[in-house]
Amino acid sequence: MNNSMKGKTIFILGGARSGKSTFALKEASKISGIKAFIATAEALDEEMKERIENHKRQRGDDWDTYEEPIKIADVIKKIEERYHAVVVDCLTLWLSNLMKAKFNIEAEIRHFISSLRTCHSSLIFIVSNEVGMGIVPENDIARRFRDLAGLLNRKVAEVANEVYMVVAGFPLKIKG
Questions:
Q1: Residues known to be catalytic
Q2: Total domain count for the chain?
Q3: Among 82, 86, 97, 157, which residue carries the largest CB count within 10 Å?
Q4: Nearest-CA neighbor of 156 among 66, 78, 90, 80?
Q5: Tell me: the pLDDT tens digits for 4-27?
Q6: Residues 84-121: pLDDT tens digits?
Q7: Residue 134: CA count within 13 A, CB half-sphere
């Protein structure tokens, strides 16, 4: 990937700890110019605080970080012209934040997809978990989350220029 990919979306899916975030950061780091990281995680407990700090150290000083658990589409619109590459990590945490806050999830997904379609400045890397390949969850909230994550991932994959599935640390290009 190079700077001629401005205004494009790269979607990266994988399971937990598959290496998807590492791949996104590695690829985004190849882009010359300033970079931004939009983090959807919230430091709600000590373990998550430690994870967030580790991720910040891994990115280093070359990255500006925006911590936004809900309004990621608004952040993209606000910052896209300032950055050559933007990484959004991760959509499934964003989805759980929306569910917890009782947002209209379908409307938020439409707003997010619209922000991707209209972004013409930055190369955007979007990270998400693939959660639909396991067993059917036993409770209705978990099934709703799984179904919404599948819908969200499908919608993002439709507008993305490239889609990768990361399995055991290996990225497999499935679109583009």
A1: 55
A2: 1
A3: 86
A4: 90
A5: 566 899 999 999 889 999 999 999
A6: 999 999 999 999 999 999 999 999 999 999 999 998 87
A7: 11
